[in-house]
Amino acid sequence: MRTHSLLLASLVLAVGSFSNAAEVYPSHPVTMVLPFAAGGQTDAIARIIAEPMKAVLGQPIIMENISGAGGTLGMARVARAAPDGHTLILGSQSQFVNSGAVYALPFDLVNDFAPVALIANSPSLLLARRTVPAHDLEGLIVWIKANHDRVSQGHVGAGSGPHLCGIDMQNRVGMRWIFVPYRGGSAAMQDLVGGQIDVYCTSPGTSIAMVRGGLVKAYAVAGKSRLPAAPNIPTVDEAGLPGLHVATWHGLWVPKRTPKAIVARLNAAVTTALADSAVGARLADIGLDIPPSVEQTPEALGAFQKAEIDKWWPIIKAAGIKAD
Question: What pTM did the predictor assign?
Answer without folding.
Answer: 0.78
